[in-house]
Amino acid sequence: MERFDYVVVGAGPAGCVLASRLSADPAVSVLLVEAGGRDTNPLIAMPRGFAELLGDRATAWHYPTRPFGPGRQVEYWVRGKTLGGSSSVNGMVYNRGSRADYEALERLGNAGWGWDDMLPAFKAIEDNELGATESRGTGGPLHISTAGGSDPLLEDVIAAAGELGWRRARDLNESDGERIGYAMATIREGRRCSAAGAFLHPVAGRASLTVVLDTVIDRVVLAGGTAMGVRGRRGGQDFEALAGREVILAAGSIATPKILQLSGIGPAGTLRAAGVDVVAHRPNVGARMREHRVFRTQFRLAENLGYNGLLGTEAGRQMAAQQYQSGGGGPLGLPSFDIVGFFKTRQGPGCSPPSR
């Protein structure tokens, strides 16, 4: 059993940043534990490879929901299972959220999470190819690009949104309100810029940092109400590591509450029903999470436009692959959505729909 100053569970976006920042002090020791393997799958680097990665249980967790709705539908919520976590398998759309989101968090008693606190942090990590402004940063480790216009059909879509009153935005993160534009993405010259690529790999050689892969953490080791370390499984063998200063759970919105509940921290009724001894009754652990939703509509085109037709044939896919290999361009170098729009789902008092 090894002992470290800090034990960080989960090498996703949060874990990679924490491991980088903490290990910058050569006087401390940091252990980063990841349930998945190395991010060496070539599809991770290729932006449009995300569709294959999400369906591969070697690179993604598939968490089933309970049946819901009139049809008793079961969804599978997908999370990354490799260095970089979900940032290594997602669609790479970079959306920082609205000012109102962070101000609401602050009003709930979360000091330091307001927009005026968060904006400097965003600017510090960004390397936005559109250049530095009061609302975006450059020179940071996380490269941000914009998809640009790769097909005339996309301009037609943006023009149609303009007729509905949506404002065209060059940078969708620069302001709030109803707007539309080409997606901002964590892509650099046709290659994914994951949290592992931006924050972890550049510091992997530090003596203060140890990364352990293919290791699933089941619970926190507690003594007298204090977190002393973590316990789990690695290669069929028991795994345990102790922390002299802190245990930090950064395993995501699903795995983190699971670890806490298995450790006896969570809703007492849920824990007792599962045969887990209650250490601390915390009813909000594992509750009140909402998955974000998007509108996605499909249309059959009357003309031969767009690149779905190209990617729908073997010859077209080979052509797209050659285009990507020659310089990282073409449809294989783009994020999951070319265009992103924000609109209100309901209108306030006195609002009238835009003229058409």
What does the model show?
The protein is α/β, with parallel strands linked by helices. It has 2 domains: 2-92 and 196-281, FAD/NAD(P)-binding domain (3-Layer(bba) Sandwich); 99-185 and 307-341, Orthogonal Bundle (Arc Repressor Mutant), CATH 1.10.1220.110. 26% of the residues lie in helices and 24% in strands. It has helices at 13-22, 42-45, 50-54, 99-107, 115-125, 152-163, 195-200, 252-262, 268-273, 308-311, 314-327; strands at 2-9, 30-33, 60-64, 76-80, 126-128, 142-146, 167-168, 179-182, 184-185, 187-188, 191-192, 209-212, 215-223, 226-234, 237-249, 265-266, 280-281, 339-342. The strands form 6 sheets. A 6-stranded mixed sheet has the order 12-2-1-15-14-13. β10 and β11 form a beta hairpin. The longest helix has 14 residues, at 314-327. The radius of gyration is 22 Å and the shape is globular.
Cα-atom radius of gyration: 22 Å
The CATH class of the largest domain, by name, is Alpha Beta
CATH superfamily of the largest domain: FAD/NAD(P)-binding domain
> What is the annotated CATH architecture of the largest domain?
3-Layer(bba) Sandwich
Output the CATH topology of the largest domain. FAD/NAD(P)-binding domain
* Total number of helices: 11
Count of the domains: 2
Structural class: alpha/beta
Strand runs, count: 18
| Oligomer kind | single chain
Question: What's the pLDDT, averaged over the residues?
Answer: 92
What is the CA-CA span between the terminal residues? 68 Å
The major pleated sheet works out as:
6 strands, mixed
**Beta-strand residue percentage:** 15-25%
**Strand order across the biggest sheet?**
12-2-1-15-14-13
Shape: globular
Written as H for each helix and E for each strand, in order along the chain, the element string is EHEHHEEHHEEHEEEEEHEEEEHEHEHHE
Can you give the helix content as a percent range?
Answer: 25-40%
Low-confidence sequence ranges: 350-356
